[in-house]
Design goal:
single chain, signal, phosphatase activity, Rossmann fold, Acid phosphatase, alpha/beta, 38% helix, 4 domains, eight-stranded mixed β-sheet, two-stranded antiparallel sheet
Length: 492
């Protein structure tokens, strides 16, 4: 995504200064990393600094004593674990980015707060000057995404992968592929150590741009051959084509399942903020790290592209989306606002967030309004969000593994709901389950087969003989040609 964001629509009227912030959900991209085309990717020192800077900014916005939009009741210095939820997929770049962000959000508290006195009078100081440990939960989607050239492949959602693959047969893709043949041939001298001639095309638009971007930031002239060919105009063109390529894979208006990662994010946001409301503000701060594909999917689903064309682009490193839960009602220890008195503000920042480059507020769903009342926000998010394993399985068309009937508690994944009222699926209403019925059926069949075999043996005057005893008889030696000992034994 380009660094210039158009001003917020003039129809938005903000009364944020008079509000109380009850909670927040932040979805952030990782910091600067090594190239995807040379895995395994790793967070760089620059990337570490970027996410730490963003974490420090959000501390000054939501956490600190003098925070500009301090979250009501949130601990300012020593983290209270029940108030914060941090998560990331099983991916080194994303998990390390999350930890770097958290270090900025809740930095070491020093020897005064970071020490305790034991019963015997011994004073124990916390290591690393009061370094604060914040648990990092692991989300199930997006594992190893930063080593994956095609992020949709990390979702394990069958229908989403099929939908994204359809992009490669679309007229838009095929036209751009043909029209950019010469452009990508011109990039070959800079990337031919990584990409073969057959790979140097619009089909690999993002990974080619990613390699050039990483090289332009980190590589010296000796490690970046023909760097003089990467003019500002060429770099801009490579980036624009990468934006087009990735948005085409991340979202399609006529096939919403392509945006499955954005749907999952929407479900997680609503669930977390709803827990803040129903729990009277117990959980206040949620931060999740993920890949840019989820961001782009959400941009399409929430119709943010109608507000600013820059939402068609790939967000920069350390970019963040944030949803604030706000109220103008009175909030105190004995009074928490009702749902009718709560609203949601959405913010986005492209790249590292700091005091000199802050998030901007945008209206969601094409409403042209912000904030949105909580009930309206939750309802509109519900039109495309995915919550829960069963709903995900149904939307994705998956029916094995975690989506098998047994894994989902006996329900039919394809139906989206369990068959609790059916005697074939429910063991609690006097009926028998499919699994039990299957076992009974197998036993009955086996009994019938054995009975038939026994009848044949008795009727024919035959008897069972062990293989060892049979091997000692001369009948084996007179067996017809083509029937070996093993075959006769097996027949018995």
């Amino acid at each position: 995504m380009h660094s210039t964001i158009l001003p917020l629509l003039t129809t938005l009227v903000s009364s944020a200064a008079a509000e109380t912030v009850l909670g927040v959900y932040i979805f952030s991209r990782h910091g600067d990393r090594t190239a995807k085309s040379t895995p395994p990717s790793s967070l760089t020192d620059l990337g570490y600094a970027e996410v730490f800077t963003s974490g420090s900014y959000y501390r000054n916005r939501y956490v600190a004593d003098d925070a500009s939009r301090q979250i009501y009741g949130l601990n300012t210095d020593v983290v209270k674990q029940s108030q914060i939820t941090a998560s990331a997929p099983a991916d080194a770049v994303l998990q390390n980015s999350a930890m770097g962000f958290l270090q900025g959000l809740y930095p070491p508290v020093g020897p005064t707060l970071g020490s305790s006195t034991l019963r015997n009078g011994t004073v124990v100081e916390s290591p690393l000057s009061g370094y604060q440990l914040i648990p990092l939960e692991q989300v199930t989607t997006g594992a190893n995404s930063e080593n994956s050239a095609w992020l949709q492949g990390a979702t394990n959602c069958a229908n989403a992968q099929i939908s994204s693959n359809n992009y490669f047969t679309s007229s838009q893709y095929l036209t751009t592929l043909a029209n950019t043949h010469d452009f990508y041939n011109g990039l070959s001298p800079m990337i031919n150590l990584t990409f073969a001639p057959g790979q140097t095309s619009f089909k690999n638009a993002y990974t080619i741009f990613d390699l050039l971007n990483v090289a332009s930031i980190h590589n010296s002239s000796t490690k970046f051959p023909n760097a003089d060919l990467l003019t500002p105009e060429t770099f801009f063109q490579a980036r624009t084509l990468a934006d087009q390529h990735e948005f085409g894979l991340a979202y399609n208006e006529s096939d919403p399942i392509r945006a499955v990662t954005g749907s999952i994010i929407a479900g997680e946001v609503v669930e977390a903020l709803n827990n803040t409301i129903t729990g009277n503000g117990k959980n206040k701060f949620n931060i999740q790290f993920g890949a840019y594909a989820g961001m782009m999917s959400f941009f399409g689903l929430a119709n943010l592209t109608s507000v600013d064309a820059d939402f068609y682009g790939v967000p920069d490193y350390a970019s963040s989306l944030s949803w604030e839960l706000v109220t103008n009602a009175t909030v105190n220890a004995s009074s928490f606002p009702s749902e009718d008195d709560i609203s949601v503000r959405f913010y986005f920042h492209n790249g590292t967030t700091s005091a000199s480059s802050e998030p901007r507020e945008f209206p969601l769903f094409g409403t042209g309004r912000s904030p949105l009342p909580w009930n309206e926000f939750a309802s509109k998010m519900g039109t495309f969000s995915i919550s829960g394993q069963k709903q995900w399985c149904t939307a994705c068309g998956n029916s094995t593994g975690v989506c098998s009937s047994s894994a989902l508690g006996g329900g039919d994944a394809s139906a989206g709901t369990s068959s609790a009222g059916s005697s074939s699926d429910n063991t609690g209403n006097g009926g028998i389950s499919k699994a039990v019925a299957g076992v009974i059926g197998a036993m009955v069949t086996l009994g019938v087969v054995l009975g038939i075999e026994l009848f044949i043996l008795l009727a024919g005057g035959l008897k069972l003989v062990s293989k060892k005893r049979l091997a000692r008889t001369t009948s084996i030696d007179s067996a017809p040609p083509g029937m070996g000992r093993g075959h006769v034994g097996a027949k018995v």
